[in-house]
Design brief:
- The complex is a heterodimer.
- By secondary structure, chain A is mainly α.
- Chain A has 4 helices and no strands.
- In chain A, helix 1 runs antiparallel to helix 2 and helix 3 packs antiparallel against helix 4.
- The longest helix of chain A is centred in the first third of the chain and has 28 residues.
- Chain B is an all-alpha fold.
- Chain B starts with 29 loop residues before the first helix and ends in a 34-residue tail after the last helix.
- In chain B, helix 6 packs antiparallel against helix 8.
- In chain B, 56% of the residues are buried.
- The chains are: A mainly alpha, B mainly alpha.
Chain lengths: 128, 607
């Protein structure tokens, strides 16, 4: 995780410098806010990466002479198909269209979205 | 993912990966595609959808060039023309260029890092559906009585406000783009997680293919700027529908606020549609030059520099507002030329002295270099506020961004299509038709857009539906429209090649190009969950190493091992970079595709 952590930390440092310079030179509140919030992206990602590096050390994908066998075993849960992404997305789209057309699209959208989310959660819990 | 280490010699015949002819999967029909969470199928869906969008955008471009070919209004009226150019920009930028990059990222990132799938397969499919639904919502504006959005692809208020553009088309535009923006954020999260968490053992960060690096840094940029854009769109929607006054000047809003928020997204967006395409051609140059990539570290660091700088140059689009601090943005904009120059140096260095074969992907990649160079040069001109004041909103700018965002994307898209088509389908695309396609496109593209620089210098403003017959740029417009016809013609050999591989398939085998990266070691098309075997990974070219290089004993390094010395050297001088490079003295690696491999030629003593 070391390179990843450095990558995020670089983002943090860069946006602090760019935001600071922009603040001093231009003083435009929109840009300064945008740049400083962008530095938070680096801070959150970097803190997470450094923390996990301290906890677990180098993983086999960080080690230059690791063998493929080092990662033997199950590495994750990758369902090959699921029917629920479409209802979830359709739900989100209907809710968004509800801003234009009112409750009659937003309510069914919200129903679809909750149904889909619940089913996906169920799939994950039972590894179907 | 079962695994095999290199106990047996990699030159042994018995270790050849399974050479599969065209795999015919059990066809479960449409339902199978609609419910899939396989990253390869989602990648194909993304690619097909974005190519259909490209056709839509190209047809709109055809209307524009048809209208502008001659003075006077022949095809569409001014109001329709406004809708047409707005939707042309919208479709090409938001619905074609970004999603096609995500298509390639979806398909190739897990294969290239040796992962079984993306980290979140179902979220991956959710983001595809959000993209498709968002695209349909944006396009459905054409069906409303007041027509589609007509305020330009960057939607400046007050024109994009309720007073400036009443009507449902604009609202649908905003809502649709909020959905595609959300889709982009989800995909970026997925790509970052996959790259950070699912690499194969030994695939250190500095052994990842450049395409993977570029997708990673692109995703970083997406995560930083897409939320800004999506929330700005929400503010615009509230202005339009619910009477808030974020951007409406008549009641105290700030139109400049929109410009800041939009371009804080909009300029990185230019690089979000550029970096993945840089990555695609970077995978192509070394393979067809039979050399390792030149300047790998420089390439990675320059990509980082471009990604960082691109988020601090946004107001160079706003020089003419008189409301921005010119020097900051002029300096940062001009600075981007430096890492871009490093990239050019590395691309040329990758070809320098190599055994170049001019296959179709290589031709398109070289065409990419040419168009991107021209676009980059005019970019340096436009980064100077003094010049920008007189050139902004003329056809000079139109020509500039069609070179950097149009030409490079299109050439890289076709390079990628010809290069990875055998991997995706198991079939080759015809090389002779590919050459016709390339030359017609190169000629057509430059005839269309080179003269637009001159039209801009002669004062032609962008976004006009008509111009007087005595205008000095009348001839340029006619030439440009003829060029557009050549571009349309260039698609004929491509479509012909597609039909041909459909009717008379020519099996490609798993690795038709003698490729460098991991995806060439699995079958074509790859099976579900990608690999049932992976080689030992000791450089950024594992497939090449496995085929042509003896990696015996690399896992257990002896005291005088060249790999070990390389590692120590890198750890000392470039601590970010714990990788091992191949033997020095064999800078020209490997025979041209098809020749039998002799081991002796490779075994040069380590100097």
């Amino acid at each position: 995780m070391r390179v990843e952590a450095i990558l995020w930390t670089t983002a943090l440092v860069f946006y602090l410098i760019a935001g600071g310079a922009y603040w001093i030179l231009a003083g435009d509140p929109v840009g300064v806010t945008a740049l400083l919030v962008a530095s938070l992206f680096g801070a959150v990602g970097g803190a997470n990466a450094w923390l996990w590096r301290r906890r677990i050390g180098d993983r086999s994908e960080d080690i230059a002479d690791a063998t493929i066998a080092a990662n033997a075993g199950q590495i994750g849960y990758f369902p090959a198909s699921s029917a629920w992404p479409l209802p979830i997305s359709a739900g989100i789209a209907l809710v968004a269209l509800g801003v234009l057309f009112g409750l009659w699209t937003a309510v069914p959208g919200l129903a679809l979205l909750s149904l889909g989310a619940a089913r996906v959660l169920d799939e994950s819990m039972h590894k179907r | 993912m079962t695994s095999t280490t290199s106990e047996a010699s990699p030159s042994g015949e018995e270790l050849e990966p399974p050479t599969t002819e065209i795999i015919r999967r059990p066809n479960l029909g449409l339902v199978d595609w609609l419910t899939t969470t396989d990253h390869k199928r989602i990648g194909i869906l993304y690619a097909l959808t974005s190519l259909v969008m490209a056709l839509v955008g190209a047809s709109l471009a055809g209307i524009i060039r048809g209208e502008l070919a001659l003075p006077g209004q022949q095809i569409v009226g001014s109001s329709t023309y406004n809708q047409v150019f707005t939707m042309h920009g919208t479709v090409m930028v938001y619905l074609f260029a970004v999603p096609f990059a995500f298509a390639v990222g979806n398909y190739l990132v897990p294969l290239m890092v040796g992962a079984p799938d993306m980290a979140f397969p179902r979220i991956n499919m959710v983001s595809y559906w959000l993209y498709l639904l968002g695209a349909l919502i944006v396009l459905s504006g054409f069906l409303t009585s007041s027509g589609a959005a007509s305020f330009g692809w960057f939607a400046y208020p007050p024109l994009s406000g309720q007073a400036g553009s009443p009507g449902l088309g604009g609202d649908l535009w905003v809502v649709g783009l909020m959905l595609t923006g959300t889709s982009g954020i989800l995909t970026a999260l997925n790509i970052v997680t996959t790259i950070i968490m699912l690499r194969a053992p030994g695939m250190t960060m500095f052994r990842m293919p450049i395409l993977v690096w570029d997708m990673l840094l692109t995703s970083f940029m997406v995560l930083i700027v897409f939320p800004v854009f999506t929330s700005a769109l929400l503010m615009l929607l509230l202005d339009r529908r619910y009477g808030t006054n974020f951007f409406a000047p008549e009641s105290g809003g700030q139109p400049i606020l929109w410009q800041h928020l939009f371009w804080f997204f909009g300029h990185p967006e230019v690089y979000i549609v550029a970096l993945p395409y840089f990555g695609m051609v970077t995978e192509i140059f070394p393979v067809f030059s039979r050399k390792p990539m030149f300047g790998y570290k420089g390439m990675v660091l320059s990509t980082m520099a471009i990604a960082a700088l691109s988020t601090s140059v946004w107001a160079h689009h706003m020089f003419a507002t008189g409301d921005v601090y010119l020097a900051y943005f002029a300096v940062t904009s001009a600075l981007i030329a430096v890492p871009t120059g490093i990239k050019f140096f590395d691309w040329i260095g990758s070809m320098w002295g190599g055994r170049i074969t001019f296959t179709t992907p290589m031709l398109f990649a070289i065409g990419f270099l040419f168009t991107f160079l021209l676009g980059g040069l005019t970019g340096v001109i436009l980064s100077s506020p003094t010049l920008d004041f007189s050139l902004t909103d003329t056809y000079f700018v139109v020509a500039h961004f069609h070179y950097v965002m149009g030409g490079t994307v299109v050439f890289a898209v076709f390079a990628a299509l010809y290069f990875w088509w055998p991997k995706v389908t198991g079939r080759m695309l015809d090389a002779r038709l590919g050459r016709w396609h390339f030359w017609l496109l190169l000629v057509g593209f430059n005839v269309t857009f080179l003269v637009q620089h001159r039209a801009g210098l002669e004062g032609m403003p962008r976004r006009v539906a008509d111009y007087p017959a005595y205008a000095p740029y009348a001839t340029e417009n006619l030439i440009s429209s003829l060029g557009a016809a050549i571009i349309a013609l260039s698609l004929v050999p491509f479509v012909w090649a597609l039909i041909r591989q459909w009717r008379r398939p020519e099996p490609s085998g798993p690795d038709p190009w003698d490729g460098y990266t991991l995806e060439w070691l699995t079958s074509s098309p790859p099976p579900e969950h990608n690999f049932d075997w992976l080689p030992t990974i000791r450089s950024e070219r594992p497939a090449y190493d496995w085929r042509h290089r003896d990696t015996d004993g690399v896992g257990a390094l002896g005291p005088d091992d060249p790999w070990r010395r390389r590692t120590l050297h890198d750890t000392k001088w470039f601590p970010l970079h714990p990788w091992v490079e191949e033997h020095p003295g064999s800078a020209r690696t490997g025979p041209p595709p098809g020749t039998p491999v002799t081991r002796e030629a490779e075994e040069s003593p380590d100097a």
